Every structure is written in structure tokens, then in C-alpha cells.
Amino acid sequence: xxQRWKLTIEYDGRPFSGWQRQEAGIPSVQAAIEAAIQSFxxxxxxxxxxxxxxxxxxARGQVAHFDLDYGNRALTGYDLTKALNxxxxxxxxxxxxxxxxxxxxxxxxxxxxxxxxxxLLNRPAPPAFERGLVWHVRxxxxxxxxxxxxxxxxxxxxxTTFRDTDCQAKSPMRTLDRLxxxxxxxxxxSGQDLEFHVEGRSFLxxxxxxxxxxxxxxxxxxxxxxxxxxxxxxxxxxxxxxTAPPDGLYLVRIDY
Amino acid sequence: xxQRWKLTIEYDGRPFSGWQRQEAGIPSVQAAIEAAIQSFxxxxxxxxxxxxxxxxxxARGQVAHFDLDYGNRALTGYDLTKALNxxxxxxxxxxxxxxxxxxxxxxxxxxxxxxxxxxLLNRPAPPAFERGLVWHVRxxxxxxxxxxxxxxxxxxxxxTTFRDTDCQAKSPMRTLDRLxxxxxxxxxxSGQDLEFHVEGRSFLxxxxxxxxxxxxxxxxxxxxxxxxxxxxxxxxxxxxxxTAPPDGLYLVRIDY
Lengths: 256, 256
What we know:
homodimer, alpha+beta, Alpha-Beta Plaits, 5 helices, about 30% strand, tRNA pseudouridine(38-40) synthase activity (chains A, B), EC 5.4.99.12 (chains A, B), tRNA processing (chains A, B), tRNA pseudouridine synthase A (chains A, B)
């Protein structure tokens, strides 16, 4: 009997070329998990993901699904999680949860909301712990100015300015429900830890990184916050700011 | 002219045998920083630390001092920080701040308060990001029971039960000013992120790890919270719980 399984996944994106399986020899998160499933049940199974992440992008709560015919043997989510994690032991990929779901569940198409968090370490000194896990910006950014810039991006817009020129989505229209910037002073030394909390039903390719890169220009005083609105209205990628590096980006939660 | 410098330091303890310099070839945080100073000014200088950390223990805000005769050349804290970080680039050690201080400042003896944070990842799934950076405990711990146990440890006591048998301190008397447990649900999947915030003027060898290891016994239901008081009153290391691993321990802040 076939059963659909929903996986919730955490991974450190640093060693991977991204989520998507590539040719043999190129490390991807998808290939790592599919290899674990193959080791567990000796079946070649393709998994379907909610949000394909790029090279170096991380996940705290990625979601994927797959169908498994395990014969008449009983299989619980607890056992499946434990078995896959045993096979994933040598990789920075962890299954947080495996849940039996109905056939109408689809990791990508059933998603109604996604939360991305972008981490930015804003201090003169480089990170000892978070190399490749944050965007390190030395010059102190003006958080209030970035918040004013972010306000222009909320709502339903044509996000062509913040979309990679290679983006395959049919429409550049998206609804941005939240773009909140949380700032905390560093625990020691000068500087601040910034988190950009970004929510919406779906995003264009590089949209979060392009929005963060643009807001950093505002925080650095090179742009006014009103220029973010002008860039959005230009509907032209060349009017936007630079793409922030993948290091700081985490897919944190997907709601269904 | 000789100047005393106060360094604030962040380091990932995983690759080190601890703070203290050992024989050649054994990696220590002290040796890494002294080598950076040597590269910067061609002088063999010994640095003095506030709290020697054990192998695998981390720091977010360690403090050390040293004396440097830099001739008649001007040297700012900004320049010293930048130069040392350039020499430390290949190590997970970062100077957060360098400050010129008076000759009466001593990293260890002038300290009036220390904050340690012990991080515990309490969920079935192993960590993808924090291997060696948290203590991973699979079974769900009862935080309220641990808080009741922790309350017995606050104040001025003979901490022999929580002191390593090799501890060199003359007196086992210490004052514990704070032992707060902060619990947050994991962002995805089941489980909780725990932080033990521990403050006092000074601590015995392994005191924080022995207290956390004992409280975990309470959280796991193997001890009652009253047994923590009984263990403390026994003044015998054999009456205490196990030593928590170094992975979760961070020296976060030192007040002067």
C-alpha cells in the first residue's frame, strides 16, 4: 500500500550546490535525502520539495514529500525519522519530523505561507562561529532607515526589480505579507545582530536576497528609503540593489 | 612606553585543547592569540585571561590582558583589533575589541561578575548546525522541575559536590547569583531550545557543567528537585550528577 510522507528538514547549506539534484558527484540536499531513502528501503524514490534553495542557502524547516510502498509492514513517522537520520549521519542534513499525510498533500502546491529569515552580523569583527551562516557587514547599518524602506515593499506588487533575470516564474506579481527587521546588540563588543523576517505565500527567484541587498544600501546611507519605492516602481532588475549572499538566508517555516 | 591592553575575544572551542597554552603542536586559544601578537609586533608576549576554558568550551566574550611596549608609535584599539584579526584569519578566534587600560586592570583579578550560558538542544533529532556547539539531549526535559532544583543552588554555599576532584581552588565556597533556565520551542519539529544562564563572581572547576548535568537528571525525572539540595549538602562530588559535555558551554560576558 502506498503512503505519502511529509518530511520537515533542517540543513546547513554550506557544503551543497543547493537543494536540487544535479549530475552525479555534485552534492545536493535532494540527492543526500534520496540516497538515505534508498539505503533505508532499497527503492529509487524522487522527493518533491516546497522551496528549492540555492547553493549555500540553509533551512530550519524545509518541507518535502514522497510516496512509499512499504508493503504490509507497519512504519511510523518516528521510525522513518530515526532510520533516515541514521543514514544522513555524515551529512549536515537532519529530518526533524516525518508525518503520514493524505494523497492530496503536496509540499509545494499545498503551501499557504513561507517564513524566511535572513541573518546579518553587523559589526567590525568577523564571526568566529557563523562563517557562511550569516552575511557579515562591517559598517553599522541604520535599522530605522531600512525599516522605512521595507515598508514600501509590503503588499501586492510587480517584483520584477527584485527578481533574478533567470527567474522562471510566469508572473512577477507577488504578495509580501511581512518584512520585519529585528535588531539585537551583540552580546560582547560593538555591533548588532540583525534578522530580516520575510513572509508570503511564494517568492520569486532571489527575491529575498535582492530585497535584503537593497535594504542594506539604505542602511548604509547610499540610498534613501524612498528610493526603494522608486526601484520597485521601475520594474527593472537593474534598478534594484545588489543580491545579498546566500550565507544569511534560512527557510524557516512553511504553513499548510 | 608600555601600555596594558584589554582584549574581548570570541572563539569556537571545538578545535582547541582549551584556553591554556600547552606543549608545542597542541592547539590552544592562548597560543593562537600569542602567535598573532608575535606576528604583529615580533615580541614574545604572555597574555593573562579572565577564565581559563576547558577543551571544547566556547567564548562569546572572554577577556584577556597583556602589556606591550610599542615604542613611540601610535596604536589605537581599532588598529590592534584589525591587525590581530588579520593574523587570526585561519582560526575560529576573533578579537571583538581591544581597549587601552590602566596598569591596575587585571583580566582575572579585576572581574566582579561572569555570565556563562549553557546551550542544550532538547529534541529527538540531532542538530544539523550545532554539532559540538550544544549538548544534544533526546528525551524531553521537565523545565519547571529543573528550575525548582536550580533554586537550591542559588546563594553562598560550599560547592564541593559540583567541583571537579582536580579543582585547584583553595576554598569550595562560592556565591551563585543567578541560574535561570530559558526555554523556547524549536522553530520547526518537536522539542525545545534550552539556555542555562549562570552568573557569579567566580566558579570552581567544572562547576557549571556539573550543575547542568545534575539538573538534567532532575529534568529527566531520575532525581527529584529536592535531591539537588541533598546533593549540595553532602559536600561530596560523588553525590552530584554527571558532568555535562563541554559542547554547550559559553563564557559570554565578564563585568569589571
